[in-house]
């Protein structure tokens, strides 16, 4: 704990004490590669999920589509975070990325909760078919695989921004499978029509809580590292 605090006071992350320069650059390149793959995959999934949500009136599909769009943006932020080879251990760059991610989480959660709540109030019933099932399975598996790779890299680089991106992909995976669950339940029990919208609200609240926590933790650190750089 003391080592971590002393390193952060110098404007560096804990990874600077764990990794040799060539190792840090190797993991940085892997992170950029995974992030670009994530951007392409989640962008395709977002378009497919938005199509499903409007065609099949699925609140959870809309929530996933918005989540996938957020995943695209968060991966773009991670690309910015690690695009500079000299700043691989930069605490200032890390914390700024986290603050932007936190703000995106809060804004997207409001949209997800608003759409799901509207569907619940208007009693919008989802339409179930094979296309919905296919999108949910592909989305869930793709996001979970991306989350695993991001989490592994985040642990090595001690990156909160990359870990947040991994969390975002994990939530996307959970939402992908939630579409499958809510659709299957509705197919056999039409009286439980509200499950789809309820899952959308729940996911929105989770994203909101994480975003607020990220902002509370990171805004003071951005100010702290900025003051340190001025002092230097």
From TrEMBL:
PANTHER family in the record: TRANSMEMBRANE PROTEIN 163
GO cellular component, one term: synaptic vesicle membrane
InterPro entries: Cation_efflux_TMD_sf (IPR027469), Tmem163 (IPR026765)
One of the record's GO molecular function terms: zinc ion binding
Keyword Transmembrane: yes
Family: Belongs to the TMEM163 family.
Species name: Gadus morhua (Atlantic cod)
Gene3D superfamilies to which the protein is assigned, alphabetical: Cation efflux protein transmembrane domain
Keywords from the named record: Cytoplasmic vesicle, Endosome, Membrane, Synapse, Transmembrane, Transmembrane helix, Zinc
Membrane topology note: Multi-pass membrane protein
Membrane-spanning segments: 32-55, 61-83, 95-116, 131-154, 166-186, 192-216
Gene (name only): TMEM163
Zinc as UniProt keyword: yes
Protein's name in the database: Transmembrane protein 163
Annotated compartments: Cytoplasmic vesicle, Secretory vesicle, Synaptic vesicle membrane; Early endosome membrane
């Amino acid at each position: 704990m003391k080592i971590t605090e002393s390193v952060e006071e110098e404007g560096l992350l804990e990874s600077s004490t764990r990794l040799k320069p060539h190792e840090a650059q190797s993991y940085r390149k892997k992170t950029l590669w995974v992030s670009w793959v994530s951007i392409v995959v989640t962008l395709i999934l977002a378009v497919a999920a938005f199509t499903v949500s409007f065609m099949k009136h699925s609140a959870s599909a809309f929530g996933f589509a918005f989540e996938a769009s957020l995943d695209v943006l968060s991966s773009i932020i991670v690309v910015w975070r690690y695009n500079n080879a000299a700043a691989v251990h930069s605490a200032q760059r890390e914390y700024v990325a986290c603050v932007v991610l936190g703000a995106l989480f809060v804004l997207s959660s409001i949209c997800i909760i608003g759409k799901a709540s509207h569907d619940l109030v208007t009693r919008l019933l989802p339409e179930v078919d094979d296309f919905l099932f296919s999108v949910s399975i592909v989305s869930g598996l793709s996001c979970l695989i991306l989350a695993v790779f991001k989490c592994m890299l985040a642990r090595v680089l001690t990156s909160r921004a990359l870990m947040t991106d991994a969390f975002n992909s994990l939530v996307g995976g959970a939402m992908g499978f939630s579409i499958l669950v809510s659709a299957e339940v509705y197919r056999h029990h039409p009286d439980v029509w509200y499950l789809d919208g309820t899952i959308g609200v729940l996911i929105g609240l989770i994203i909101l809580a994480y975003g607020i926590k990220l902002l509370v933790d990171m805004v003071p650190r951005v100010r702290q590292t900025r003051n340190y750089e001025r002092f230097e």
